[in-house]
Amino acid sequence: MTILQPLRPNNHLKLDILLALAALLLSAVGCRPAELTYTIHDGATAIPVTGHYETVGEVLAAAGLALADDDDLSPGPDTPADPATPITIDRAAEVTVIDRDAVTTYRTQAETLAEFLTETGLAPPPGARLLADGAPVAAAALADTPLPARVVFDPYKRVIITDGTERQALRTTALTVGEALLEAGVSLGALDGVEPPREAALSDDLDIIILRAAPYVVVADGQTVAVHSDATTVFDVLADNGIALGPLDYTRPAVDATVAPGDTIEVVRVTERVDAEDVVIPFETVFEAAADLEIDTLIEATPGSNGLLQRLTRVRLENGVEVSRAPDGEVVAVAAVNRVLRYGVNIVVRTIDTPSGPVEYWRKVTMRVTSYTATSAGKNPGEPGYGITASGVQAGTGVIAVDPTVIPFRSYVYVPGYGVAFAGDTGGGIKGRFVDLGYDEGEFQSWRGTVDVYYLGPPPAAEDIRWILP
Prior knowledge:
disordered N terminus; G5 domain-containing protein; Resuscitation_pf_RpfB; hydrolase activity, hydrolyzing O-glycosyl compounds
C-alpha cells in the first residue's frame, strides 16, 4: 500500500515571498511626496508654513492669517502656491483724523501724507493748520511727509493774555496755554503762575492771566531769605520755595493767613523730646503668720528688692529753645519685690522654778529694766494722786510700770530677782521692751541693764496678743 504524505512548503519559497513584500512597502514609501515649506512675510514678521497647498489663499488659511479689506496681498489669493515665491502681506495703516466736529479712523495704503489726503479727499479748512503726529506741516511739505498715525485740523483761536497792566490779543493755532504764551513771546519765571495752567487745552476766546511771583521775606532755620511767589497765603508761599513744615511747626502769621508782597513770614520749628527720670520704688515688708514657728520667732521667707519707676516728662522746644515741660506719665521699668517675714504664732506653755515654787509662763522677753518708788515718780507726799498707779493700785513692791502694747496691762509677770509682779502702771518714758520695777520707800533697789520677763498665766485670746513686739 502506498501512503501519501502532506506537502510542506519549500523554505526558499518563504524567503522569496517576504523579500517581495518588503520591496512593495519600500516602493510605497518612496512614492509619497516630501512636505514643502512656504514663507509668508506679514509686515516685518516671517512665518514658515509646511505642507502641500494648491493656492496662496490655502497657505494663508493654514497659517491662520486673515486680511482686512484694505490689506494688500502679493501674489493674489488664487495664485498657485509656490514655495520658491514668498507671500507678502502689506497691511493697511490706520490714520486717525481729528477736526473740530469729529474723530475718524481711516485705513490706507498711502505712503505719504499727500497721498492720504488725496485718497480721502480731506483738506484743512480755511484758517486752520494741519498737524501730523503733533507737528505742524506746511502745504508745500505734504508730499515729503511720511504717513502719520494722527492728523489734526486745528483751527485758529483768539485769546487774550493779561500780564499785570499789559493786555494783548493773539490769533493762534496753539494747542495749549503754554504753546500760546511761547508763540506770543511771553516768558515766565520759575515761580510765575498762569491761569489756566500751562498744560490746559486752548479754546477760543480764552482769557489767560499771568500771575507774576511777588517778593516776600522768610525767617526760618536761623536764616532770613528773600523769596518770590505768585501765591497769597503763607502755606503756598512756603511751598513754592520748597520750605516744608514739620508736624509741630507753626508760622507767624498762621499758615492759612493771607499775605501781601513784601510781608515777612516767620517759621517756628517745634520739636519735642521725652525725658525719663529714674525713681526707686522701695520694697515693702509684709508679715505672714506661721503656725509652725514658736512665738517671737521671726524668719525671712523672701528677701525684698527695690523696683524702678521711670517718670516721663515731655519737653517742648521752639527753634531749639525749651519753652515748656509737662508730665507725660510713668512707666514701671522694674517692679518691686516685697520682703516677706514669717512670724511664729505657736504658743508653748513652760514652767520656771521661782523661790515661791514653779510657775507656768507662755512667753519670755528680754527687756531693759529700771526701778522706782512713789516718791521718784514725780509727786510729793500729800499731793493729789501721790502713789496711785495707772491701774488705781498703790505704787510699791510688786507693781511694775510697763508698755501696755508689749506686756498686757493688768497681767502678771515673773522677773528673776524681783519676783512675781503686777503690770499695773505705765509711764511716759516706758516704751517698747522696758519695765520699771516698783518698790516701797524703805525697800528700794536700783536696777539697770536687761532682764528676762516671763508672761504668767494662760495666754490671752489670739486677737489680744501682739505677736511681733517693737
